[in-house]
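Quick one - first record:
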Amino acid sequence: MDEEKVLAIQKDIVRVLRNIYDPEIPVSVYELGLIYEVQVGEGGKVDIAMTLTAPSCPIADDIVRDVKEQVAQVPGVTESNVNLTFEPPWDKDMMSDEAKLQLGLL
């Protein structure tokens, strides 16, 4: 897959991630800084490294499933894998300025 196509797929994935919200916080998982990495590999296989605001998040499975399923619908994506990690641990400094503004932290 050429670099231009990979970049287009990544851009579409980010657009999708900006529309997936943590139900407990009215901010997208992307703006919260929960997405650590998006890799588009050969044949459209996508690997996403993400975290949660807390390891004990009661809706962790729902958020991870939502990310996996919605990214799988992006044109050009043939497989979507989500790897949940807590290294490095999430903190509020990982949020975008937009998210901080929404939550009244700026």
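second record:
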Amino acid sequence: MFYSLSVDEDPKPTFLRDQGQCITCHATSRTEGVPGHLMRSVFADRTGQPHYGSGTYSTTQSSPFEKRWGGWYVTGKHGDLRHMGNLISQKNDRLQDLDCEVGANLDSLNNLVSTDPYLQPTSDIVPLLVLAHQLEMHNLLTRGNFEARSATHYDGVMNRALERDEDYVSDSTTRRVSSIGDKILRCLLFADEVPLTSPVQGISTYEEDFEALGIRDQEGRSLRDFDLESRMFKYPCSYLIYSAAFDDLPVMMKKYVSENLQTILKGDPSQDEFKNLSVTDRKNIYKILQETKPGLLEASPSEELSGTK
């Protein structure tokens, strides 16, 4: 459910429940077809309003850098990489019309905006990278939850109507689970992440604070450890695998994801679509998950979906 809160000062602020306006954007193909989060890049004018005639871009971990963060402030170092952040555009501008050098590699926002009213004087590039992954991952987990529950309900109705065993799982349900389960796995393992062609460095304490929250194995490794040289994380498996959203996936969906995750991590990079994961990456991630999320990788990959509601 979405709620809005007026930005005007009010001695008694009131949250207003959305009557359908929010989900015009926040429940579309951009959010995996379920009510969810949306990170957008726009061509912004001097008031912060988008020039919608110039188009917008959805930002995910697979988005090219040059199409990210239009309408956002961005601080931090990113070498030769360029983005749309910190820029004012004119009506009818297109991507090729923007002078992205102006907004690149900023240590300070002092020449752009007064940061005095805000909690931080920065808009760090590292949490912006993390945010894009986190929103995409949560939307996929929500969709996975919805698909598995919907499919299970449909099977229950049809099983009673056709006098089948109550635990019978239809081919349709298996396909629905595998379809969204494969998307979850690709996002979970950063299969579509755009590589960093220059090192990225924030100018706040975010990196240190974020890593400090990591669950670590006996060798001190965590899925929250950053790389920021050629990719976002040193061990490319999402830290959201520890989240309530992942843990609360219906058994059927969670079983599909965990069993296929195990297969991938034990597999040969030349034999599957996860070319971003080297043999060493797979071994490291497998070991970290074994020690920090017991039980996740113990199921046999050969087990069937049947009877796993």
